[in-house]
Task: structure prediction
Amino acid sequence: MARVLVFDSGVGGLSVLKELRAQKCATSFGYLADNGFFPYGIKEDAALIERLPQLIRAAVVAHEFDAVVVACNTASTIALDEIRVAVDVPVVGTVPAIKPACGVSHSRVVGLLGTPGTVRRPYTDDLILKFAGDCEVLRHGSAELVELAERKMSDGVLDVEDVQDAVRGLFCQPRGEQIDTVVLACTHFPLLRDELRKAVDRPIQWVDSGAAIARQTKKVLSDNEPPAGRVAVSDQLLLTASEITPSLLRSFQAAGFTNPQLIDF
Ligand code: DGL
Result:
């Protein structure tokens, strides 16, 4: 009967939700999309640190979740500690999969594709220092790719040339042509995996954190059993702004969230 809250600025968390469902992490899910403050990747750090713990706390207090998955690299790399302090349930974060990516790279040149916020964070510097070993990690922050993922989920189709333009800055850096592995360090980007494959016309290993997050969520839930006698609740979509296109709403419906609710925040 475990209930898990998945949180992101927009649709990106759906890439993590897919893994959480595949690994049967919970019996029901809440999905909190901070569409009123989207996108996070170009926001000031201080604004995110101030907003996110209170927002997630409001959702957990109002809707009784057993764990929170912060399905957002931009939020996790700046506010994970503060979010953990704000809520009294376990919080699983999403951080760039630098360790696994560097573990599988043959060329020893790895790309890091995230939001502008994530790629410049001290948290990311530390991950590279700790886990990149002898790999060179080339970074590229793209707010455009985030918008493209939202557009794909809303319209269903994308122009691959737009994706090509958005990733060019990664591959045209010195040694960029040697990249054989790319960390998808934004949860929106796995939603564009097919388009990325087409846009970068050579074999690349695209690595994200979804499966590892689901494993970790299972683990924290098995260490923290939900209270007995819990009544089953259906999946819930929580939004911070009522303006959402009907087609985007349909993407959430396709992911199992049929009744959007505005969160009082
Ligand atoms: N999905 C988010 C991430 O993983 C953030 C996208 C955004 O709002 O800029 O970083």
Notes: The chain has a mean pLDDT of 95. The pocket of D-glutamic acid is lined by residues 8-10, 12, 38-41, 72-74, 115, 118, 146, 186-188 (CB under 6 Å).
